[in-house]
Amino acid sequence: RKVALFEGRDEFGRLRPLLGTAEPATDYAGNPINWPTLPSYVNAGLVGQMEGSIAWHSPTTENPALNSTEEWEIWNATSDAHPVHLHLVSFEVLGRREILWDSATSAADRVLDPTGITAPPPNGDGTYLVVQPVVQHNGLLGTGYKLQSPTLGSPVAPMNEYVENTPKDGVTALPGHVTRFKATFDKPGRYAWHCNILSHEDHEMMRPLQVGPETSLFASAPADEGATQAKAAESVPAALALEQNYPNPFNPSTKIRYSLPASMKVSLEVFDLLGRRVATLVNGEMPAGAHEARFDAKRLASGAYAYRLTAGKQILTKRMYLVK
After folding, report:
1. Is-contact 146 44, C-beta < 8 A?
2. Percent of the chain as helix, strand, coil, to the nearest 5
3. Interatomic CA distance for residues 276 and 60, integer angstroms
4. Angstrom distance (rounded) from CA 232 to CA 219
5. Is 40 helix (H, G, I), strand (E, B) or coil?
6. From the DSSP assignment, how many helices (H) and strands (E) are in the chain?
7. 20-24, 216-220, 316-320: least confidently modelled range
């Protein structure tokens, strides 16, 4: 599996780190993962199989099978080192290689254009970048990139600061390098992989990671006009958890999953960015286990919303995006 680190721009032209793929995305069963068919993606030319720079709220592209062992390559196309972390995944670093860049690129600019219209054409002897739009949560477009002809260069000597070929959950992706590691995904569910620099997490250098199918932890339930609940399969969760809604972005409805370690009074509310409550999905005593609530936003305007789970003295909050 080839993933990638990019430096792009948001809709206002501000520098923005991004994660994505260095190959067409597939799910745990090998099926292609396609861009959403929402107008914002289609109008930007993002159709077919997902690849390149991808924002947090777009569909999950890292979807290994449960109990599988995969070799990952992190292609760092940025000019900075990034400490990359995978939630609840222990892996072993196998080695590093330099990225062999196309000779038509330069250290200051790796972007080429096969047509030769907006940038020099490639010489065909290595890796280069092409510009690719990134759909923001508000439907506007930022600037991202896609790797073309990814080519490995010379091996890189192991880092001396610490022993790398031991189990760990984080690794430093060096600029212009490819970091290879072997990982076993033995915990089903939805997690994240991201850069551990806090400001990068907040600016889209974070992507969801789904181990196994979406139903691996939760049972599905029929939808109705109010909140719906889904009982977890068998085990009681060890801690309170609030999942990222799915799909995200959504139109007009989405599902929010949460799990409770014990029976308790719970409220699940949705707020707009002005702090106004726009919906109460759950309000009452709930049993231990995993649950699911459906949020219907057909009467609301497009934009970002926050959903908040209050259970006992604990409060968990996440963002979601309605795009009509």
Report:
1. no
2. 5, 50, 50
3. 29
4. 6
5. helix
6. 2, 20
7. 216-220
Separation of alpha carbons 153 and 266, rounded Å? 54
pLDDT for residue 236: 64
Q: What confidence category does residue 219 fall into, taking pLDDT thresholds of 50, 70 and 90?
A: very low
Q: Is 323 exposed, middle or buried (0-12, 13-18, 19+ CB in 10 A)?
A: buried
Best CA proximity match to 310, nearest among 242, 243, 249: 242
Q: Which two tokens stand for residue 135?
A: 């759909």
Phi and psi at residue 257, in whole multiples of 5°? -110, 145
- The per-residue pLDDT for range 182-205, each reduced to its tens digit, is 988 888 887 888 888 766 665 568
- Residue 42 phi/psi, 5-degree rounding, is -60, -45
Mean pLDDT of 42-64: 91
Side chain identity, residue 299? R
* Alpha-carbon gap, residue 138 to 301, rounded angstroms: 11
- Distance, in Å, from the CA atom of 266 to the CA atom of 280, rounded to the nearest integer, reads 11
Task: List beta partners, residue 194.
Answer: 85, 206
| pTM given for the model | 0.66
User: Would you tell me how many other CB atoms lie within 10 Å of the CB of residue 34?
Assistant: 15
d(Cα 39, Cα 59) in Å, to the nearest integer?
A: 15
- State how beta strands 82-86 and 189-195 pair: antiparallel
- As given in the structure block, the two tokens for residue 194 are 């991201």
Kind and range of the H or E run holding 307: strand 303-311
Residues facing residue 70 across a β-bridge: 183
Mean pLDDT, rounded, for 35-59: 91
CA 267/CA 282 separation, integer angstroms: 5
Which one, of 194, 210, 208, lies nearest residue 29 by Cα?
210
Amino acid, single-letter form, for residue 168: K
Spatial CB neighbours of 20, under 8 Å, sequence gap ≥ 6: 3, 4, 6, 51, 52, 53, 54, 61, 144, 146, 207
Q: Which residues of 261-284 are buried (b: 16+ CB within 10 A; e: fewer)?
A: eeebebebbbebeeeeebbebbee
Q: Is 198 helix (H, G, I), strand (E, B) or coil?
A: helix
